[in-house]
Amino acid sequence: DVVITVRIYCDDAMRRNRGWVPDQVKDNDVTETDLDHYCQWSLEIANNYDGDTSVRLQLQSRLLPMILDPTKVPKIILSPVPEHNLILKHVRFYENFSVDGGRPIFFCDALGVFSDPVATAAMLDLMSAVITPEVSHLVGLSSRGYPYAAMLAQKYGLGMVFARSAGKTPGPLHQVQVEHKNYGGGSLEISSLTLGPGNVVVICDDVLATGGSLEATAKAVEATGARVASLLVFAHFRECGGKVRGGGKRRLEQEYGRKVHAMMEYGPTIHDCTPRVSMPVASILEAAETAK
């Protein structure tokens, strides 16, 4: 059986326009507040406009596809640590997401966090714990790694460089074939005009599964003469669904000698998937600045 949970909400200003009068006793009754802290909604719909057109359009474009195809229903998995759920409530897991012409995989869609500026700020505070004073550039891995690298670079006044799919970079470049991949494949490339000797880099991506794309990007970065300080991901897919013993993090650390940081870990399956957030809140860079 598939359960779809839907929250329809509007802000207080619109509620007042529609005739709502605050009543502390009624508004604090359990019948009004019982779901205030529930975070595992399949779908949230804003009802901040008069008339039913907006809600109807949202139901048609967002709820109807889930009803017609239950594989599109996301699962929200929260942490035992309530403070982490500000971020995790926006992370959606799909048990059978089709890739490579229909092959189903267990997929973590972490990009929903960026839809909430408060959750985004909290996420960046956690991920920035590994940005040390020596780092000069953040490299974003095509293409889900781009927003992490760009926002961290902006936060700390660092350079941001794009690791792109093959054939997307004009001018002189370094290209490396991806050897291990959970899905997709091909090569990744770095413009040799953006990095060079003396630069120190942290490479960013959303999810670490096999580690193939991150290792290919690291090799491309090193071909420019720059040094890779560490690899930084939002989430590590433990065991990669049974495909990689110990997961891609172990492979990168033990086989390639990389330093890997993951804000959280999940898996190995959707039925054994409690996320574990593993990064401290304080940034090493901010701590160094405070100590001056």
What's the topology here?
Elements: E1 6-9, H1 12-17, H2 24-27, H3 30-33, E2 43-46, H4 53-68, H5 85-88, E3 92-99, E4 103-109, H6 117-127, E5 137-141, H7 146-156, E6 159-165, E7 173-177, E8 187-191, E9 200-208, H8 212-223, E10 227-237, H9 247-255, E11 260-266, E12 276-277, H10 284-291
Parallel strand pairs: 1-2, 5-6, 5-9, 9-10, 10-11
Antiparallel strand pairs: 3-4, 6-8, 7-8, 11-12
Structure description:
- There is one protein chain.
- The protein is α/β, with parallel strands linked by helices and 292 residues long.
- Helices cover 29% and strands 25% of the residues.
- It has helices at 12-17, 24-27, 30-33, 53-68, 85-88, 117-127, 146-156, 212-223, 247-255, 284-291, and strands at 6-9, 43-46, 92-99, 103-109, 137-141, 159-165, 173-177, 187-191, 200-208, 227-237, 260-266, 276-277.
- An 8-stranded mixed sheet has the order 7-8-6-5-9-10-11-12, with helices on both faces. A two-stranded parallel ribbon has the order 1-2.
- A hairpin with a 3-residue loop joins strand 3 and strand 4.
- The protein is elongated.
- 30% of the residues are buried.
- The model has no long low-confidence stretch (mean pLDDT 89).
Number of strands: 12
Rg to the nearest angstrom?
22 Å
* Head-to-tail CA distance between termini: 58 Å
Overall morphology: elongated
Structural category: alpha/beta
Largest sheet: 8 strands, mixed
User: What is the residue-averaged pLDDT?
Assistant: 89
